[in-house]
Amino acid sequence: MNWKRIRFIVLLTMIVLLAVSLFVPALKIPYRACMVYHKLSEKAFIVLNPAPEIDYPATGEFDSSRMKEGERRAERIPVLMYHYLIPKKENKEPGNISILNLEVFEENMRYLHEQGYYTATLEELERFVHGGMALPEKTVVLTFDDGYENNYTYAYPILKEYNFHAALFMIAGRIQEEDGKPIKTHTSYLTQQQIDASRDVFEYHSHTYDLHYLKDLYCGRKLSAASDGKLLKEDIPLAKAAGLDTPYFAYPYGEFNYRTLYYLKKENYRMAFTVNRGFAKPGDDPMKLQRLNVTSTTDFPYLLETGQQRESIPPGVDS
Q1: Dist CA 220 CA 90 (whole Å)
Q2: CA 91 – CA 202 distance, rounded (Å)
């Protein structure tokens, strides 16, 4: 008896049955069996699609042009993450960690300015991660996700006042044709005119064209639509055609898998950001960089120093 052939036929039969059952709800396959099939299909994809080599730009000579004489070099850099800004009196969702009171953002930026922080570009961060550039010890990277119009109406003038630089990850398909109402709604996004008018402060990168939503991907699990390789493959050219032809990317909801990485690398993306908490350091995987989310109650100096969340103590309250 040819046991190898028998095992192969049995395994193949199981895979076929599992595949068919995914498309026949009446079969109601167990979750564990579904996950087995999913893992097998993922392993098959990895074997058949080895990760593309990324063509990183040559670092050349070590760049220390951002350093002043006697200044200490950064060993790690906090990449700060912001989303939606609104005045405190109009914040109807104080528990939503993606909504930041405008007054807190103003305090954050004032603190960075008074403490002498340098706001690096993503290109500088990329070179820092690859060990080709020195940045001052007091360096941060400011990032905004989604592309809300209030990033222009509220954040832009504050950043411009302090001569700060920031990166904004746009959902390209939501760019508006006309100005909306940034104070009243979460559906008000930047217009192309606002994008063009704010390039002296913001650099614009991709948060997909239209994959910032959750969908059932497998086994009843709701995950970021960008984790669906087929959808991402179709989405990337749309984002580039909309003006986000860039090597930098932020994962919707911070979620990614091998397929996500494969299609991004295939399209020459060189650096991508999660929502996992931590600093960016030389030697980090540039496609899995960590960030620090800032909320309305964040102890900002403590976050910059430790990378940990701790609620700030209101003025006049003893610790």
Answers
A1: 37
A2: 25
Which residues 6+ apart lie within 8 Å of 300 measured at CB?
Answer: 107, 108, 111, 294, 312
3 state SS for the chain: CCHHHHHHHHHHHHHHHHHHHHCCHHHCCCHHHHHHHHHHHHHHHHHHCCCCCCCCCCCCCCECCCCCCCCCECCCECEEEECEEECHHHCCCCCCCCEEEHHHHHHHHHHHHHCCCEECCHHHHHHHHCCCECCECCEEEEEEEECECHHHHHHHHHHHHCCCCEEEEECHHHCECCCCCCCCCCCCECEHHHHHHCCCCEEEEECCCCCCCEEEEECCEEEEHHHCHHHHHHHHHHHHHCCCCCCEEECHHHCCCHHHHHHHHHCCCCEEEEEEECCECCCCCCCCEEEEECCCCECHHHHHHHCCCCECCCCCCCC
- 191 in Cβ contact with 139 (< 8 Å): no
Neighbours of 291 (CB within 10 A): 24
Place of tokens 């217009």: 191
How does pLDDT run across 94-150, given as a tens digit for each residue?
Answer: 889 999 999 999 999 999 999 999 999 999 999 999 999 999 999 999 999 999 999
Burial 55-68 (b: 16+ CB within 10 A, else e): eeeeeeeeeeebbe
Q: Which residues, in sequence order, are CB contacts of 58 under 8 Å at separation 6+?
A: none
Tell me the pLDDT tens digit for each residue of 171-188. 999 998 876 555 445 668
Nearest alpha carbon to residue 270 among 132, 125, 145: 125
At residue 174, what are phi and psi to the nearest 5 degrees?
Answer: -105, 10
What is the spatial distance between Cα 78 and Cα 136, in angstroms, rounded to a whole number?
12
